[in-house]
Amino acid sequence: MHQVKRQSKQCIGMLIRYTVKNYLSFKDEVVFSMLPSKGTLMKEHKTHPIKGISVLKAAVAFGANASGKSNLIKAIAFGQNMLIRGNTGVGFIDYQPFRLDEDSMKDNTKMEYEIQAHNKCYAYGFVFNHNRIEEEWLYEINKKKDSLIFERNTFKNTFNIDFLLKNNSEPEQQQFLRFLAKATPEHQLFLHEILTRNIQSNVSHIDDLNAVLDWFINTLKIIFPNNAYKPGVTLRAANDKELKHYYAELLRYFDTGISSITLNKSDIDKLDIPTDLLRIVKEDLLNPNAHNAYGTLKIGREIYLVSADNKQLKAQKLKTVHEMTSAKKSAFFDMNDESDGTLRIIDFIPLIIDLLKGGKVFLVDEIERSLHPNLVYNIFELFFAQCANVDSQLIVSTHESSLLTQKLLRKDEIWFVSKDRTGVSQLNSLEEYRVRFDKEIRRSYMLGRFKGIPIIGAKYQIDQLINNNKEE
Prior knowledge:
Blueprint: E1 13-21, E2 30-33, E3 58-63, H1 69-84, H2 102-106, E4 109-117, E5 120-128, E6 133-141, E7 146-153, E8 158-160, H3 162-167, H4 171-183, H5 190-196, H6 207-219, E9 220-223, E10 229-231, H7 240-253, E11 260-266, H8 275-286, E12 294-299, E13 302-309, E14 312-323, E15 330-333, H9 340-357, E16 361-364, H10 373-386, E17 393-398, E18 414-419, E19 425-429, H11 442-446, H12 459-471
Parallel strand pairs: 3-17, 3-18, 9-16, 16-17
Antiparallel strand pairs: 1-2, 1-4, 4-5, 5-6, 6-7, 7-8, 10-12, 11-14, 12-13, 13-14, 14-15, 18-19
Helix pairs in contact: 7-9
């Protein structure tokens, strides 16, 4: 395969761990960890260490319908949106606690992200309810000790920014920081205020804040199956010719029967893009803090490549090229002419390109949607084959049990999400079970050993219901 240009090491940013409590179906605190176990198999699945900490490059969460596996990704996305876009409600937060318990409905929600960004490790988290952010904190974390960068406690009316004040000794800079801390609304995150206000021209030394913001804006990419817009290739040096080449190679690799693609200019103002969606695309591509150069926009079944050019959005319609068998000519197809599976592969190509460049964390919900099981497997195979010297992370939720093999994944890369009788989602790693490295685990999963499969009710009750209906 054509070698994709790699990101430099200082761009590396990975997810170490994510903690959530009292959000959607997660009543109790659960921890999703990308830290590897002591196992020595598949060493290439571990990233280069930052401050002595290596993390895994992949994770797959399995679970039945409504088990909560999508809620895990929704929770991670919720925190990202709170930081980047803020809370749009006037004076309130879109608080979504566990609803099947009265105490939980009155309790706070907690989220914490442990990440690697700009060659450091950080823990950033917050506690909130419908009315306000109760707590918010940022630490630089190391194996020996953690260093506080800032801490906010609304209930105690305290805001510790001593570290930031020490690094910015000029009175004007300190005054600006104090003002910003005091002026942060109760329903907004302090880091969101740092992002939206013109702090760069007023405060010099906020590298740690910028590193964490950069991770949430440019490193963390979350894709849901029904998203019309998907962020894509980030290198500013990328051009249409280069992208066409990558698309062509990957479409051939996945055996779609497509030889290449062509791009036709389109007027973005005539594409009938919903206002909210257009706002997101503009924020993503025109944001001076963002590195995205291209994204894909799906309208109906048609796919458009969207990019920024001189602070203006431009759109190009993708068409596929097929070689004709009866003559040395090409046939051009609209996306309407292609299968759902082919469209889904085309959706994933920007993701794959970015993964292979390095320095990205992709979370994909229901990766198997409209894809043949072999293609899902192939995406992971391709990633692992190319990732020996690339540090990226591919984290997905899926029903696809063909991925449940230790020939492809390490035990610590396999997670199960299950829901108990009270509606509470639980998260367990295969590493918690005593499973030999050479054991085929798919059969055990289907038999219910690792949970995460549907619990089917008594069939005789359904039979009786149907028979009664027939008699009536």
